[in-house]
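Morning run. Coffee first, then this:
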Amino acid sequence: MRLALPSRAVAAFAAAALLALAAPAPARAATPFGTLPPHNPYAGPDGTATMHGDTGSSDATRLPGPAAGPLTSHRTALQSACPTVLVGYDGFPVALCTTIIGRTPTVHLLDPDDGESLAELPLAKGSLLGGVYAYLDDRDRLVAVDGHGDLLRIGHHRTADGDWELTVDGRLPLAGAIPAGDAVVGISPDWQGRVWFATGGGVVGTADDRTGAVRRMALPAGERIANSISTAPAGTLVATTHATYLLTADADGTPRTAWRQAYDRGPGRKPGQLSWGTGSTPTFFGPRTGTDYTTIVDNAAPTVNLLVYRTSDGSPVCSVPVLRAGGSGSENSPIGAGNSVFISSTNGYPYPALPADAGPSVPASAAFRGGLSRVDVRPDGSGCDLVWDTTVRSSAVPRLSTADGLIHTILRKPLIPGTTATSILDPYYYAEVDPATGTVGRTKFLGAGFLVDTLQMVGSIAPGGVVYQGTITGVLRISAQ
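And here it is:
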């Protein structure tokens, strides 16, 4: 997810659109979660450079969330679904959105003081909206692939009259490496400065815009890629609809398979998921290097499992049933920090529409009951244990702060308390969850109705304790008063 919001979920909302009180703040205890993936020198700040925080997709950050006390929120209406909000070294948020009318991918530069748009730049539209996953490079440029299959580096600059503008500062065509009708769904830089890309049809490649070299390989026929990819010094993680891969590259950038691990993809797509297979962008995590292990959630029925592998050779560490208290299915990337992994449920989440190739769900429908689980890898690596399992009803990809020791997310509460029903009038709340127990602490009402539907998109914690959360119509800015 994942995603954050997965690109297919943005497409689902855009297609449908065309048719269509604060609790006391908890005490801030010291956190035991400290080890995160190492900084990628070709990416922006850790915690805000990618949709999942860093190139290892930890969905964790060393930045603290809002300070204790009353909270305030502000909605920037952009008439767009905004799954990607990143923040560079200069403190300026950059959002990659998709307009409701026209489904045009559009980059917005946001004002760090109030979240309003300072400049915008439409991109070429493609079959998957030109891709929704993007990242900030070490010069605060947004790196994305547009609908023409061009790898873009988009910078923001002051004009002569003092206004802001967004410009394409670099362009490398990838079209020759992408089969007709296919499109890039995930990108991430490696430690050599190359950009790895993955397409929905199962092509993985590298692009070096310093030399113009583009290399590719095709994964086995029938395996699709429906989530983004993750990079670490050991290689690139890719989760297809059938298996998890660690890939490395030859000296000229040609991808090679280091290991492959198949998983249980179940009898079909679960309700609240957008494809038949894992919903996870794969996550690097671990107590020593921050990349000792890799993890995804499978699609087993009736109960999904958290799968953990050793990064070095792909050998299994554990398979643990998760999300048993709520709905057992997930479209989201797990949080990984130290020895701990946190998984949120999307089972039954009411997406406005589904991708054309999603296929029927098994079962045909399900209530959105929520769910959040914590699994710890044993210190000696001999296996894993389920620490807690709750029915937290998260409507966003949660983010762990190792600075304040809290999980930050958005809750979608039922309009009729005590039920699992959903409606377009549901209320939404910013929430902080204790990672030690899974209990919800401070909350803040954000609004009700589809205008503030966070549609399982990611929230980013920015410097100053500000949370930027994408919705299907714009961006929410949440901070202490």
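The first strand starts at residue 60 and ends at 61. Good start to the day.
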